[in-house]
Structures are given as structure tokens and as C-alpha cells.
Design brief:
alpha/beta; two-stranded parallel sheet; 8 helices; globular
């Protein structure tokens, strides 16, 4: 089974849109190990709706839209690494919660979960000002933990279109390839994601898993 773990430089960075786009073009299943916040719908529902991908059940569904360790405390549950086992799929996109150092509990972080699942990380970063620092710090944390890194995907937002200078700096200082640059989707639909094709360099990287 081929799988990739989607992590980010921050929360709200574009991981879920990236996951839906990957599921659609890579023809992969989707799995969100920990869902924090249920009231406004889940990431699994959004990804499945946008990509048509099979979404495997979350291991933990926490009620509050907070860091998993805090939401788990409020729900009165204890998250352990041994709770998590990769679901069976030919290809699987795994989406973490927040950034790579977000805590699962008072001991383990998303980095520990990646190591537990023996995952290769694909880091999602924003395009705008500040991304070089945040991206390189996240890459350093992944490397220090011994987590393999497939590369970086840069996600544009309404105010920050794709930025070639930031991409060049991340590849130089972070010493990893930027495999794709997603535009800002004014209308986020399955068709909009479908029309933005996957770059060959990302296809080759995924094929190498």
C-alpha cells in the first residue's frame, strides 16, 4: 500500500483542499486519524464530497475544534499512539491535524504519529510572506525526527498568489523540492480541483513511494 501523510506549517493552511485534490488525481482513499470539531462538518465529509474518494472512519472524533490534546481532555478521553492503524487501501492520503508539532496528548505529537505509521510526509505551506521561515522550521523538525519528506506543496490564498521567489527560497534553504503550487480556488468545487492537473514532478514523487 502506498500512503502519504499530509502535514502543514500551520492550521488552516490548505491541508484539506490539498488532500481532496490529491485523492482526486492520485485516485486515493482518505483518512483523518483525529478529527477535532464536529459541529461544522468534518474534513472527511469535505474531502469525500470534493473528490469522490472513500473516506475511512476517523480513529478519534473529538467534539471541540481545538488541538487534539486539549479537545481530548475536554471530552474525557486519552489518545494513545497504539490506537492508530493504517486502514487498508491501494493508495491512501492521511491528513494530520494542524502542523507537525501539534500535540496528540501530553507526550506525543503529529511527528510521533507519522513515525508510528511509518509515513512519508508531504508538507503544505502557504505562498505568502512568512512562509520561508515557517516552512524551513517545519522541515527541520521533520528531519530531526527522522520522518522522510516527499516534498512541499505551496497553497495560495485570496491575498497571496503563487510566489516564485518564495518557492525558490524554500527549495534552496529547505533542501526539498516544491512538488506543486495550488492556486486559490475562488469557487471550491470538484470540477475546479479536477481542472488543476497534477504536475509530473509530483506524479513521479508519489510513484516512488
Amino acid at each position: 500500500m502506498k500512503h502519504v501523510f499530509i502535514t502543514g506549517t500551520d492550521t488552516g493552511i490548505g491541508k484539506t483542499i490539498t488532500s481532496a485534490w490529491l485523492c482526486q488525481h492520485w485516485q486515493a482513499d482518505y483518512w483523518k486519524p483525529v478529527q477535532s470539531g464536529l459541529e461544522e462538518g468534518t474534513d472527511s465529509e469535505l474531502v469525500s464530497g470534493l473528490s469522490g474518494a472513500r473516506a475511512h472512519p476517523e480513529t478519534w472524533r473529538l467534539t471541540q475544534p481545538l488541538s487534539p490534546h486539549q479537545s481530548a481532555d475536554l471530552d474525557g478521553v486519552k489518545i494513545q499512539l497504539n490506537d492508530f492503524t493504517l486502514p487498508q487501501a491501494e493508495r491512501l492520503v492521511v491528513e494530520g491535524a494542524g502542523g507537525c508539532l501539534v500535540p496528540l496528548n501530553w507526550r506525543d505529537t503529529m511527528l510521533d504519529l507519522m513515525k508510528h505509521l511509518r509515513s512519508c510526509a508531504l508538507l503544505v505551506a502557504r505562498s505568502g510572506l512568512g512562509t520561508i521561515n515557517h516552512t524551513c522550521l517545519s522541515l527541520q523538525a521533520l528531519k530531526a525526527a527522522g520522518v522522510p519528506i516527499l516534498g512541499v506543496i505551496m497553497a495560495a490564498d485570496r491575498l497571496n498568489p503563487p510566489n516564485p521567489a518564495n518557492r525558490e527560497a524554500i527549495e534552496h534553504f529547505g533542501e526539498v523540492p516544491v512538488l506543486a503550487e495550488l492556486p486559490y480556488f475562488e469557487h471550491l468545487t470538484a470540477q475546479a480541483l479536477s481542472e488543476f492537473t497534477m504536475p509530473d514532478r509530483l506524479k513521479r514523487a508519489l510513484d516512488s513511494l
